[in-house]
Amino acid sequence: MAKKGSLSITSENIFPVIKKWLYSDHDIFYRELISNGCDAITKLKKLELMGEYEKPEEVEYKIQVSVNPNEKTITIKDNGLGMTEEEIDKYINQIAFSGVQDFMAKYKDKANEDQIIGHFGLGFYSAFMVADKVTIDSLSYQKDAKAIHWESEGGINFEMTEGEKTEVGTTIVLYLNEDSTEFSNEYRAREVIEKYCAFMPVSIFLENETAEPQYDTIEKDELTDKDKVIETVIEPAKTEEKENEDGTKETVEIEPSREKYKILRRPVALNDTNPLWNKHPNECTEDEYKDFYRKVFRDYKEPLFWIHLNMDYPFNLKGILYFPKINMEYESIEGTIKLYNNQVFIADNIKEVIPEFLMLLKGVIDCPDLPLNVSRSALQNDGFVKKISDYITKKVADKLSGMCKTDRENYEKYWDDIAPFIKFGYIKDEKFAEKMGDYILYKNLNGTYLTLQDCLDENKEKHENTIFYVTNEKEQSQYINLFKEEGIDAVIMPAAIDNPFISHVEQKKEGVKFLRIDTDLNASFKEEVKEDDEAFKKSSEELTELFKKALNNDKMDIRVEKMKNTGIASMITVSEETRRMQDMMKMYNMGGMDMSMFGGAGETLVLNANHPLVKFVLEHKDGANTEKICEQLYDLASLAHGALSPERMTKFVSRSNEIMMIMAGQKVE
Ligand SMILES: Nc1ncnc2c1ncn2[C@@H]1O[C@H](COP(=O)(O)OP(=O)(O)OP(=O)(O)O)[C@@H](O)[C@H]1O
Q1: Which of 376, 463, 557, 662 could form a disulfide with 604 if both were Cys (CB 3.0 to 4.6 A apart)?
Q2: Superfamily (CATH H level) for 524-663
Q3: What is the pLDDT of residues 463-505, one digit of tens each?
Q4: Which intervals of the chain form a coiled coil (predicted)?
């Protein structure tokens, strides 16, 4: 007698809601059904160990997925512990469905952004996302169990009858709805299974029922019990014609005739049942780590190094985080952290669990203790999840600081590549910043790597608590030369992240100030000018006026100095604050804003009173070429500081030509 019933779904509207809500990842049904199969096999293995079940020798635990694109069906077959009629009634008719009800009651009003991670908790019911009709055929491992057939159309009513299954396990068939036929395509199926099930603990095989069988030919001694021989192939002996000494020809055998077997292509499991993260770090070789990286992230550049996380207490967490090699000039940093729950893939880059800055790395994390069927916002406020995230941060900081202390050579070698991660972490994560602050390196003008304390110590006498930095070695070369001449050091900080990074260091290290190398003229570059040097004061004022007039800019900031280096006539310096503000604007794409609101863009034209040209200008205020010299000095200073605007560049080139004409004694029009 068939048992019929109505699954206790109270809301008739449940389907449209689930469908809409799950629209983005319908494919999770594969994960849910395959992981149920894995669980069933794991349980049966335990029963076997306990002596409560004896596995027939020929049986190999596995999950077989078969797709049939013609019939639009998917069959998922496991040889796990199976279910009796009572169990189907309990676990499928009541629990699976009531689980869905709870789940929906909790989430149906929630907006999309508050999804649960990877839609866990739908379980068996997710089959109805893609199928109109679902059947279950199950035979329990229990003695004298009867095979059961269950089917449901639409997931509201079911019918349960005696089944015909003869092997222990469960077979589920999905009859796909019109919108979901793609999942019976072999390649799509492979893609989804490889995404979610790549590390599930039981071998998963995929077959296409409609595809022609494929064959391989193997050597006789390669044959195993599992191979299905289609035919024996006799490969004829290989011969060669040979000329004898007496000129006659002879055919000789160089390889004897061989028997080979044509066999049905051996199925290959889609998954790796024992992922590397489960092994103890001491047992993993360097090659294994690299292979794993290549396979999982399909990145053929070798990672720099990795951190193997392995923790059992107070929570269970395993994983491997790789620091990838990045070419900063051409690539943006895009990492991926894959999150697993007992080898079942959940999702990439779950920011609630994994500290944001680590998302720049590539890695896998398996945390069986993670609460999954809660919303993302609940996860964010979960103390336990916070602990996991803190643990990961701590481990990464420990590894990096340990490396800096004990393997400084390699640490320096990797530094340029890992600096962006570390600086980003320093900005984003207070705890990480605390642990890593002393292990952040600064490359100085000689290419030596210093810690912040080293930088402060070496500069203590000349400029206590101030660190000069270079953002562009080419554009700032004039200043670099000046610094080198005076034996003053600076550090190279060329990356976009350096700008916010130094602001954070300044906030955390009270008193420390970073100044870009072109910010101001350090006292050591100048000769001392006496307070009461009236003559200097006067000539400064005159020069300032003269330049303002020549450059037709009343607001320009001009300063006259007596520089020790008499080779430099003019320079531009930029106020640190203004420049940082401008850089920030650029970063946030607000470049269009009027920079003059920052008082002439914070630029100061510095004139060296010791330079003959400047002296000449002062002595020939009304000279025929004085104005040109002033303009030229300003443009040269700007050029040495970066670039000229297109308009000024045009004028500069034509003026330079005029100057050469004058040098050549030609008449200038
Ligand atoms: N292939 C199977 N073999 C044996 N039992 C199964 C199988 N599939 C499902 N079950 C039983 O049905 C129950 C309900 O399954 P369902 O997938 O809905 O939820 P779950 O696996 O318990 O939890 P989750 O929501 O996390 O998936 C399972 O706990 C299991 O007891």
Answers
A1: 557
A2: Heat shock protein 90, C-terminal domain (1.20.120.790)
A3: 778 899 999 888 888 889 888 888 889 999 988 888 889 999 9
A4: none
User: What one-character-per-residue DSSP string does 539-592 give?
Assistant: HHHHHHHHHHHHTT-TT-EEEEE-BS-TT--EEEEE-HHHHHHHHHHHHTT-TT
Beta strands in 236-304 (DSSP E): 238-243, 249-255, 258-264
Angle between helices 626-640 and 534-550 (to 10 degrees): 90
- Which tokens go with 142? 């229990």
Nearest Cα residue to atom 31 of ligand 1: 91
Which of 391, 469, 409, 398 lies closest to 436, judged by CA? 398
If pLDDT is split at 50, 70 and 90, which confidence band does 209 have? very high
pLDDT of residue 99: 59
Distance CA 427, CA 390 (A): 15
Fold of the domain built from segment(s) 448-517: Rossmann fold (3.40.50)
| Closest residue by Cα to residue 206 from 326, 79, 66, 304 | 66
Q: Mean pLDDT, to the nearest integer, of 612-640?
A: 89
Query: pTM for this structure?
Result: 0.78
* Mutate-to-test residue for ligand 1 from 44, 91, 95, 342, highest number of ligand atoms within 8 A of CB: 91
CA distance 277 to 229: 38
Q: Across all residues in the chain, what is the average pLDDT?
A: 85
For residue 370, CA distances in Å to 54, 120, 383, 458 come to: 34, 11, 11, 48
With a 6 Å cutoff on the Cβ, whether 354 touches ligand 1 is: no
Structure tokens belonging to residue 96 = 């699976």
Ligand 1 centroid to 357 CA: how many Å?
Answer: 36
Nearest to 338 by CA among 271, 411, 277, 263: 277
Distance 96 CA to ligand 1 centre (A): 7
Amino acid at 235: E
Contact 602, 608 (CB under 8 A): no
Distance CA 64, CA 79 (A): 9
What DSSP letter does each residue of 176-232 carry, written as one string?
E-GGGGGGGSHHHHHHHHHHHHTT-SS-EEEEETTSPP-EEEEEGGG--TT--EEEE
- The predicted pLDDT at position 329 comes to 53
Q: What is the pLDDT of residue 593?
A: 52
Query: Does the domain at residues 3-208 carry the CATH identifier 3.30.9.10?
Result: no
Domain ranges of the chain: 3-208, 215-264, 277-406, 448-517, 524-663
Indicate if ligand 1 lies below 6 Å from the C-beta of 32: yes
- Ligand 1 atom nearest 372 alpha carbon: 26
Residue 250 CA to chain centroid, in angstroms?
A: 67
Q: Which fold has domain 277-406?
A: Ribosomal Protein S5; domain 2 (3.30.230)
Q: How many CB atoms lie within 10 A of CB 496?
A: 13
Residue 123 alpha carbon to ligand 1 centre in Å: 6
Per-residue pLDDT tens over the stretch 93-142: 876 666 556 656 665 555 444 555 555 556 888 888 889 899 999 999 99
The pair phi, psi for residue 196, each rounded to 5°, is: -95, -25
| Residue 75 pLDDT greater than 80, yes or no | yes
For a mutational test of ligand 1's pocket, the pick from 64, 88, 124, 197, i.e. the residue with the most ligand atoms closer than 8 A to its C-beta, is 124
Q: Do domains 3-208 and 524-663 have the same CATH topology?
A: no
Say yes or no: CB of residue 78 within 6 Å of ligand 1: yes
Find out whether the beta carbon of 420 lies less than 6 Å from any atom of ligand 1.
Answer: no
